[in-house]
Amino acid sequence: MHRAAAEKRAFIGIMGALTSLAAYGCCWQLRRYQESRHRWNKVLSELDSFTPTELAGYDAKYYPWLRENLYDWEYRLVKLTGYFKEERFFVRRAKDGRAGYSVFAPFVTAMDDFDLRKDTNANPTLEYGIMVDLGWVPKDHKGDIEMTTEPISPLVSIIKLKKS
């Protein structure tokens, strides 16, 4: 009889531990869901109002997401004024089992003029900018990418920041 009571206490203890573990897992998942829902509600409200944060001047040179918390800028709409340089960078990436490239272009948002030497006429310009992901292209169509200064129309030039 003493053995049956010990087995019953062990069974109750194990079941209590499993129940506590399951309850903790449910609470953890609920917290993750609430955080995700909060982030997506923020994204959807910005998309509904479609009011991107405009960055110009000092902010276009020293981006606020470098000075502040990057997570506050995740999925935020940002409008930058500037121009694309006539350069493209191709990073080899496979997509759906097909060989291809991710295409990146430098986007200049601010410039500084400075003299390296006072005795020459050289007036180099220091450019500040970001790299913009223009998308993926199959390997066979790499030559179709134009090296023009504006690969994206100005109406679509609103850039979404995302953590990688």
Write a concise synopsis of the structure shown.
The chain is of the alpha+beta class and 164 residues long.
Describe what you observe in this structure.
- The protein has 164 residues and is α+β, with helices and mostly antiparallel strands.
- It has three helices and seven strands, in the order αβααββββββ.
- A hairpin with a 2-residue loop joins β4 and β5.
- The protein is elongated and about 90 Å long.
- Mean pLDDT is 79; it is low at 154-164.
Indicate the structural class. Answer: alpha+beta
Along the chain, the helix and strand elements come as HEHHEEEEEE
Counted up, domains total 2
Total strands: the figure is 7
**How much beta, percentage-wise?**
25-35%
**Molecular shape:** elongated
Distance between the amino and carboxyl termini: 62 Å
Count up the helices.
Answer: 3
Average pLDDT rating: 79
- Described by its quaternary structure, the protein is single chain
Low-confidence stretches: 154-164
- Helix coverage percent: 25-40%
- Largest sheet entry: 4 strands, antiparallel
Rg over CA atoms: 27 Å
